[in-house]
Amino acid sequence: SSSLSIFSSSVIIYMICRERKGKTSHIQNRLLLGISIIDILNSVALGLSFVPAPNVECSLGLGNISTCNAQGFFLQLGLAAPGYTMVMSIYSLATISYKIRDKNITVKHEVVMHATAVFPMLLLATIGASNQVFFSFRGACWIDVALKDCFTTKEGNKRMGVDCYILYASFIWCLFTVFAITISLVQIYRAIRKRATTMKRFVFQPMQHQNIEDEHPRPTKDSSKLDRVAKDSATQA
């Protein structure tokens, strides 16, 4: 799956970048370029699996602390992908529902959009790597602590380390992005449905009136004269 993800994201990057002054001039393509780069970095780190883990007792890894930290850094950074999805949903909401032009979004908000998607997970990845909290014995190097263990330990005491704070923040970040994406999609659906209803009101009603008039045409002066002549001829006969 990692190789397929790398291939797909690479194709997207190639399609966007092959025209220097074409597709990269659109903000949605630049956002798509950002999420593709993040996806490649995350997929490469995930595809290495247990290989970068330290080669210590009871470990299947072939690396050391530095390689394990590097893998954990890029895995943590990979959570910026949901952030880019959230930002792209908000962009679609702004252009479809509120009819904000791309030029205004590019000038005023594009830098903030990229920063919102990348900076939170970049900060957590940097904190985790600097404190060397990324580790694993059998799998990829990341937070080697279950979320439930951060609440209570076997002795009943709370375990509050840097790894738990990163785990909390990552969990809240994922919930927040899912919530923002859901709200944006619902608002976009409502806006499109409202426009479709308005179009039906102004397009189909005149056609219905036209069909009724075709079925029951109003009598004209010429048709009324012909009717009179026909009646007079019948009477004389």
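^ that was protein a. below is b, sequence first then the tokens
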Amino acid sequence: IRDAGSLLLAFFVGALSTVVGTICAFALIPLKSLGEQGWKVACALTSRHIGGAINFVAVADTLNIEGNIVSAAIAADNVVVALYFAFLFYLATPGEATNPDDGENEKITIETTKYEPSLGEEIVLPDEEHPIPITTSSIAYSIATASCLVTLGSAITGAICPNLSSLVITSLLTVLSATAFPNWFSKLRTSGTAVGILFLQMFFASSGAAGSLLLVLRRAPSLVAFSALQLAVHF
């Protein structure tokens, strides 16, 4: 909370505007073509626009949304979000800094922040003085730690609330573990980032491959319209 500052406030405002956008969009486009799955998809899309694709998966899993509808919703929303981001980039004005020292700070940031194009190369994270190179051992430790957290999160979820997605408890355990054992998790930062990016890209690729935009437009064009209206109200 201390580090986030005004960014945390901006997140809450954005999340609230997303909820308002969902309510307005669902009132105008109730997704009747999806039947009983309509309100569930609306909730999942809301969670995605607030916290990303992983939130979408967690909500879809919790609400038991059908697999073909999940693929269709992701495919439709990906198109709308891509156009929305392109619009935001178009509105962005380069060189808005007013502080004369910002230019020097920007140079320092650029010089100290480097991203290699290949996961086989050394990855340097922002503001990290002594980056830890990615090795077979560091990748193994990262995957082993993640596997333990996922297994424990699934076990706890099954014991206390079987209907809840295990991603919720797993995320909570990950945050608590990183807070309690910062030294251990700092050693896994570089390799964990690389592995996480790899699996996230695999998730997007598999989601996109499973969904057909033509099928979405033919069977449920309301998904595209709903997502577009949702983001328009948010904006």
